[in-house]
Predict the 3D structure of the following.
Amino acid sequence: MKKFLSATLLAATLLLPTTSYAARELPSISLSKLTVMDALNARKTDRNFVDGDLTESQLTKILWAANGVNRPDGKRVNPAALGVYSVEVYAVTREGIFRYDPQSNGIIPVAEGDYRMTTTTGQNFVGKAAVNLVYVENPDAWKDSRHTPPPREAQLSSANVTVGAMVQSVALAAQTEGLGNCVRGSINRDAFKKAARLSDEKNILLAQSVGFIK
Ligand SMILES: Cc1cc2nc3c(=O)[nH]c(=O)nc-3n(C[C@H](O)[C@H](O)[C@H](O)COP(=O)(O)O)c2cc1C
């Protein structure tokens, strides 16, 4: 509880919770020399996760790859139709559920506790992965934009294309950190919706486990 509260306070100051992610040794491979081509060559699905929390730096890199801002005008690592960023990313760790805030490159606590298994329909490795990202479509992003909202079908289609880019960016970032990843469509949507207190309009599109592997 103390840790979660400190995460809340730090998130309020737009920082990642320094107390939440214990530093641990990085795998002993030469990560600095990994090129994008190397990472693509090594890309694969991993399911043999072992316990361990990501460092703050690792979690930040993974979330930034998923939905971070990479230019002064606020545009992001991954493309979105008309620049309307309708996909939100939730990070589900041993400690809680957090919503990633692209503007601050920080996380906002949503729920305390281990909800990792709510992001699966029963694949046990999910409970071992350090973080499970959940990609959620927020149709309100269109209302908040200066664009006329396209039909729902087109909104969802665009969001799914963006999620495809997001999961691949995360896969490459995970490779460079020596971490494994698994994209997952099998999600207990009702359980996660409840745990993350998502409003009814929001749609859970995909999940992705990231963590240490055997
Ligand atoms: C949209 C999508 C949904 C997927 N859903 C799951 C899933 O629910 N559980 C799982 O273990 N793997 C899932 N996968 C991973 C695939 O099984 C995996 O990518 C495929 O077997 C090819 O293996 P590779 O990624 O190692 O090349 C999913 C992949 C995609 C793209």
Observations:
- The chain has a mean pLDDT of 89.
- The first helix runs from residue 2 to 12.
- The first strand starts at residue 87 and ends at 93.
- The pocket of flavin mononucleotide is lined by residues 44-45, 47, 123, 182-186 (CB under 6 Å).
